[in-house]
Structure formats: C-alpha cells, structure tokens
C-alpha cells in the first residue's frame, strides 16, 4: 500500500454476509488500496438512498467482523441502510473519509430508471453527492436463475475499471451491470449505455385483502429499447452508465420566480 493509495469504502444492500460484497472488496484489496468494508447487518434491498431511523437513544449498532478470505481487512456489520452507512463514512465514522465508494456486487441487475429504488445505487449516489467517486455493481442473476452466481465474472470487469474510477472527477458515479455467465470472452469490455425506461424485471404492487399490500418482482415480456442498459445486458454485454445524484432543474417548468 502506498501513501497515494485511495481510501475505499465497500458496501452493499444484500448484507454483510453476501459473497458479492467479499468479491468486490477483494478487487480493491488486490490493488493495494486502503479498504474498509461496512455493510448492513441484514439485507436492505430496495432502500434507495433512505436513512435508517435511529433507535430511541439515537445510536446505530456497529459490530466488527472478519470476512472469509479477507483476513485483516477492516469490516463492520451496521444496523442501517447502505446510504446511511455511506453518510457515516463521509463523516469519518469508519476512519478517514473515503475517496471511492464501491457498492455491490448486487445479486440481480439494476437497470433502467428503476435504479432510483435500488439500495446498491442509492449508496453510490449518496457517495457522489458528498464528493466521492462511486461505482455501483450488479450481477444479472434473473428471477428464474437458480444456479450459480458468477461473482468472479463481475469482479474481473470491476478490476479493469477501478484504475479509471480512481481518475474520475470527484462526485462521479457509475452504474455497472454484468451478465451472470462463467466467462464473457470477447464481450468483457463494458459498453456505455443509456438508462432504459423499464427493465426486464419490474416491481409489482398488489393489494392483498383489506390490510396488506404485496410487493414482488416479476419478469415482463416485450422488446427492450435499443442501446439501453437493459437491452445490451440481455444480449450478454456488460453495461456501464454514468448517473447523477440530485441536481436542481433550472428550467423551472415555466414558473416565474
């Protein structure tokens, strides 16, 4: 590790025990970067950039952990959503403020405008809002895929991208999606993509009786928009999209003021 090595926070929304989290952290460790892992103690998918409400004493519990294969790497299980963890990190809650935040590797793609709801992407966008460079990473393990998740495939793409991530301007955020395949072959280079209006997997809300609402993920048919992240990913290509966090809209929609 050199004095100029970036400080990296690795988080996710699948929880501290996710193999995708360990695979992503290993990418940073392999580069000799100063790496700290802080992830939800339990799954926090779909939390966007939401912040966990603190307990009555205003404390959020943090437990030191050691992850398999990452001996000596500082790691914490936090009773909080990933965006809260990033917010704590930029306020030096886990040591010095991170230069780079890596979020993932999520089990399941995060494509299209629905990334607004993703805890994986929400963590990265929170990092960008506070001046860190950030990368959200997802593996396209579809609803019908019950077999092996090829974390190493996504990790290989990440390794190639990380030197470029370190050279980005402060506050830049990228969203990376990787097909769940054992090998990408000649298609390993991520392709720049626009956000689809909708992805192949969508959330469906259904009223169940008088006292409950059910939220579930469903796969939908139909042609995907050419050149979008959803379409290219369906063709077996890794995709990368630059995204922005909250910015003002100066058009004001014709309202004077």
Automatic annotation (TrEMBL):
Q: What is this protein called?
A: 5'-nucleotidase
Q: What is its EC number?
A: 3.1.3.5
Q: Which reaction does it catalyse?
A: a ribonucleoside 5'-phosphate + H2O = a ribonucleoside + phosphate
By sequence similarity, the record places it as follows: Belongs to the SurE nucleotidase family.
Source domain of life:
Bacteria
* Location of the Survival protein SurE-like phosphatase/nucleotidase domain: 8-182
For molecular function, the Gene Ontology terms on record are: 5'-nucleotidase activity; metal ion binding
Q: Which species does the entry assign this protein to?
A: Kibdelosporangium phytohabitans
Query: Which top class of enzyme applies to this chain?
Result: hydrolase
* Alphabetical UniProt keywords: Hydrolase, Metal-binding
Q: Which InterPro entries does UniProt cross-reference here? A: SurE, SurE-like_Pase/nucleotidase, SurE-like_sf
